[in-house]
UniProtKB/TrEMBL annotation:
<feature type="transmembrane region" description="Helical">
    <location>
        <begin position="128"/>
        <end position="149"/>
    </location>
</feature>
<feature type="transmembrane region" description="Helical">
    <location>
        <begin position="254"/>
        <end position="273"/>
    </location>
</feature>
<keyword id="KW-0472">Membrane</keyword>
<feature type="transmembrane region" description="Helical">
    <location>
        <begin position="161"/>
        <end position="189"/>
    </location>
</feature>
<feature type="transmembrane region" description="Helical">
    <location>
        <begin position="12"/>
        <end position="30"/>
    </location>
</feature>
<keyword id="KW-1133">Transmembrane helix</keyword>
<feature type="transmembrane region" description="Helical">
    <location>
        <begin position="215"/>
        <end position="234"/>
    </location>
</feature>
<dbReference type="Pfam" id="PF01578">
    <property type="entry name" value="Cytochrom_C_asm"/>
</dbReference>
<dbReference type="GO" id="GO:0020037">
    <property type="term" value="F:heme binding"/>
</dbReference>
<feature type="transmembrane region" description="Helical">
    <location>
        <begin position="280"/>
        <end position="298"/>
    </location>
</feature>
<feature type="domain" description="Cytochrome c assembly protein">
    <location>
        <begin position="109"/>
        <end position="306"/>
    </location>
</feature>
<dbReference type="InterPro" id="IPR045062">
    <property type="entry name" value="Cyt_c_biogenesis_CcsA/CcmC"/>
</dbReference>
<feature type="transmembrane region" description="Helical">
    <location>
        <begin position="105"/>
        <end position="121"/>
    </location>
</feature>
<feature type="transmembrane region" description="Helical">
    <location>
        <begin position="71"/>
        <end position="93"/>
    </location>
</feature>
<keyword id="KW-0812">Transmembrane</keyword>
<keyword id="KW-0201">Cytochrome c-type biogenesis</keyword>
<dbReference type="GO" id="GO:0017004">
    <property type="term" value="P:cytochrome complex assembly"/>
</dbReference>
Length: 310
């Protein structure tokens, strides 16, 4: 295959990945809509020796939402694989790491966000945030496609192995921040229903508000050191090699620091002041808003040395 062929495969894979992720998102939404509480039926059995009844047998009835959740997760895995193929072929087409502009950042960011979700969901039951994760990834892919550029060489400032280290750490941290934000949003919905005594069959399918709150804290606690390393350590080191200074209060640097401050405040408040629940959830959502500002809005509308990333 030549470079043009790799470009075509990459573009086709991005389009296909968007379609699959969109189907996964719709399946998650349908799962929420059809959610019914799993019914556990107790069936009495014959009385055992000595007149002591035997243990009741619990039979868990499957619901339509269980099938939809499984389909949605499978589609998410497939979409992640297809986007991974898109990233690999884009790299082959450009003969470099495919993180040189907004289009590549968007596709790469969506891929890593989905990959982190898929992996974490294998070890922890977090499929209930799948709709938010796939919805956000779909939006990011849409923005990426709108900024499409043909594969080409990197600008001189990006010719460094720090590109891989810096961007990879920041993207993975952003994926964990996304999970934390999704859990925080779901927490606010669930907690309000619990406070009002309106937890119906649909919300009963999801974990309690306390479980959602703990998940948000744990994934943000994982993402924060990655963000610290990627944005505030690897980034300045790379800036020193590229521009001869570690920190220059460039708009992107300022917003990366703001994101760090917000999430540092979130973790500090939870660890020392015992902040949990609604206040912590709101801070987590604000932190993710600053991350999105740093990652996209500054790139699209800001100026400064990072303007090459448009």
């Amino acid at each position: 295959m030549n470079l043009a062929d790799y470009t075509q495969v990459s573009n086709f894979a991005v389009t296909s990945g968007m379609i699959v992720v969109a189907l996964a998102f719709l399946a998650y939404v349908a799962e929420w809509g059809f959610a019914r509480q799993v019914v556990k039926e107790e069936q009495p059995v014959a009385v055992g020796a000595g007149g002591v009844p035997a243990e009741p047998v619990e039979q868990e009835s499957a619901s339509r939402s269980d099938v939809l959740r499984s389909v949605a997760y499978s589609l998410t895995v497939l979409g992640t694989v297809v986007l991974g193929l898109a990233m690999v072929t884009r790299g082959l087409a450009s003969q470099r790491v495919p993180w040189g502009n907004m289009y590549e950042f968007g596709v790469g960011g969506a891929f890593i966000a989905l990959l982190v979700y898929v992996v974490v969901a294998r070890v922890s039951p977090i499929e209930w945030v799948g709709g938010i994760v796939t919805g956000f990834a779909l939006a990011v892919l849409g923005l990426a496609v709108s900024t499409y550029v043909e594969p080409g060489p990197l600008v001189p400032a990006l010719h460094s192995y720090w590109l891989v280290i810096h961007v990879a750490a920041v993207m993975i941290a952003g994926a964990f921040f996304l999970l934390g934000t999704a859990a925080s949003v779901m927490y606010l919905v669930r907690q309000r229903a619990e406070d009002n005594g309106t937890v119906g069959p649909r919300l009963s399918r999801f974990p309690s508000a306390a479980v959602m709150d703990r998940l948000a804290y744990r994934v943000i606690a994982v993402g924060f050191p990655l963000w610290t390393f990627g944005a505030l350590i690897a980034g300045p080191i790379w800036a020193h090699y590229a521009w001869g200074r570690y920190w220059g209060w460039d708009p992107k640097e300022v917003w990366a620091f703001i994101t760090w401050v917000v999430y540092a405040g979130y973790l500090h408040a939870r660890a020392t002041a015992g902040w949990k629940g609604k206040r912590a959830a709101m801070i987590a959502i604000v932190g993710f808003a600053t991350f999105v500002t740093s990652y996209y809005i500054v790139n699209l509308f800001g100026s400064g040395l990072h303007s090459y990333a448009k």
